[in-house]
Amino acid sequence: IEFYIFLQVRKHVLSITNILDIFKRSTLINQNDFVSDEYVNMDKLSKQIECVVENKVESLLQSYRSLRPLLLKIESVVSEASCTGASSELSSYYFHVQINVYNALSEVVVRSLANLRQLLFSQVNHQRIYSKGVESYNDQLINDAHIAQ
User: Fold this and answer.
1) Phi, psi of 68 (to 5 degrees)
2) What does the pLDDT read at residue 117?
3) 99 Cβ partners below 8 Å, 6+ apart?
4) How many CB atoms lie within 10 A of CB 33?
């Protein structure tokens, strides 16, 4: 019976680990989601970003919400108390999962902000190239380099 308990706990822990891995690999903003050969004005780009981010956040929320039932299944197998999510035997594991979720989501935010910055700079540079023309833009870069020296 102990081996059965071990297998059940292991199965649920692996599921939780997989969800945490999804969080760790996620990004809300990926520049490839917004690839375009033409200039997109910032109003349209911000609406596209908002739509993509909302969809990705909803997906992450679904994954996050699936953690609680898995934790309660572990609690039901390990603890003889009712499945409240407050088992003293599992409090350190609950804390471990909370810290991992927090760290993973922090990484998602930082990575997404870096991607947003990169996306915005690419849009600004794209706009300069198409509004001034390639030759005048390159001339401006050369002038800027000479001034900097």
Assistant:
1) -55, -50
2) 87
3) none
4) 16
Q: Is the pTM of this model over 0.90?
A: no
Q: What is the C-alpha separation between 132 and 39, in angstroms, rounded?
A: 13
Angle, CA 121 vertex, CA 136 and CA 21 arms, to 5°:
150
**Alpha-carbon dihedral angle through residues 57, 59, 61, 65, given to the nearest 10 degrees:** 180
Judge contact between 118 and 31, C-beta under 8 A: yes
SS3 state at 38: coil
Is a pLDDT exceeding 50 seen at residue 74? Answer: yes
Segment 130-136 shows an average pLDDT of 42
Indicate the burial class of 104 (C-beta count within 10 angstroms; 0-12, 13-18, 19 or more).
buried
Cα three-residue angle 82-83-84, rounded to 5 degrees: 100
Q: How far apart are CA 109 and CA 88, in angstroms?
A: 32
If DSSP codes are grouped into helix, strand and coil, which group holds residue 74? helix
What's the chain's length in residues?
149
Residue the block writes with tokens 């609406």: 47
